[in-house]
């Protein structure tokens, strides 16, 4: 197979079937865990009928090729075994109260589902335009349906499979998420393309910075509910960036591997102040 150069790739990838991934399980979001008083976890799935096959310009074969290429890129760049199945439709997971992390809505009917079944009042989209175009999503129709239903649609684009782009974008993304949660008009749906990298990283950073958790606790809380592989180093880097006051401070790249997996109370307060200051930017 030739090198994949589709829009959402920032790196040219050579597609190969490697035995090291043959034994790794696929991620299927097809189960629902009922919520009890002792837990708030629930995995929910809604299949957008027809998926990419609804578009007459695409065949099931081309749809399968897109998913295969995307999943190989994800395994190579994110070092995790999870896969995205676009043809199964939107899938999502309840993380904490009023926060849902999931994959991209594919059609206006998905917005209706989020509004009426999940009481979603805000959507935070982390995709770049080229991600949306790659999957043939009509973003205009989705945004229009959000307006009709009174859902606030927000965008904080970050480059897929790029930890440095994620690191730079986390403060503003968390600012939008924290603002929406504080508004309290309904749940917030955070998504990227597959809901396995950028979106869970934003949710973890929010829990780390605003919910009195260290990074490992927040990471485990999310990944125990939604199996995924967000980049922990990007979150540590963004945490360092927000707490850095001294221009002569040691560069993040030279710090120990586990630096900034936890922070002092004064550092958390400083982060919160700086994230709040990003509102509206």
From TrEMBL:
This chain belongs to which protein, by name? Answer: Phosphoglucan phosphatase LSF2, chloroplastic
Pfam families for the chain? DSPc
Database matches in PROSITE patterns:
TYR_PHOSPHATASE_2, TYR_PHOSPHATASE_DUAL
The Tyrosine-protein phosphatase domain extends over 91-248
Region annotated Disordered sits at: 46-65
| Keyword list, A-Z | Carbohydrate metabolism, Hydrolase, Protein phosphatase
The UniProt entry's GO CC annotations, sorted and at most eight, read: chloroplast
């Amino acid at each position: 197979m030739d090198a994949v150069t589709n829009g959402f790739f920032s790196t040219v990838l050579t597609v190969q079937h490697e035995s090291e991934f043959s034994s790794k399980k696929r991620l299927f979001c097809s189960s629902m865990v009922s919520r009890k008083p002792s837990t708030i976890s629930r995995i929910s799935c809604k299949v957008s009928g027809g998926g990419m096959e609804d578009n007459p310009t695409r065949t099931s074969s081309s749809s399968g090729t897109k998913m295969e290429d995307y999943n190989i890129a994800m395994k190579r760049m994110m070092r995790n075994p999870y896969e995205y199945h676009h043809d199964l439709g939107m899938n999502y997971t309840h993380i904490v109260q009023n926060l849902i992390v999931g994959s991209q809505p594919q059609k206006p009917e998905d917005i209706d589902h989020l509004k009426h079944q999940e009481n979603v009042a805000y959507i935070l989209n982390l995709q770049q335009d080229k991600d949306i175009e790659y999957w043939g999503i009509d973003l205009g129709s989705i945004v229009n349906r959000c307006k009709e239903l009174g859902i606030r649609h927000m965008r904080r684009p970050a480059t897929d499979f790029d930890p440095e782009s994620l690191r730079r974008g986390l403060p503003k993304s968390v600012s939008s998420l924290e603002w929406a949660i504080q508004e309290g008009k309904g749940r917030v749906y955070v998504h990227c393309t597959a809901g396995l990298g950028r979106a869970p990283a934003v949710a973890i950073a929010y829990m780390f910075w605003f919910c009195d958790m260290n990074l490992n606790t927040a990471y485990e809380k999310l990944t125990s509910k939604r199996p995924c592989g967000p980049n922990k180093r990007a979150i540590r880097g963004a945490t360092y960036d927000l707490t850095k006051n001294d221009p002569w401070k040691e560069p993040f790249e030279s710090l120990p591997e586990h630096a900034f997996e936890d922070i002092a109370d004064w550092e958390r307060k400083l982060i919160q102040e700086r994230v709040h200051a990003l509102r509206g930017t």
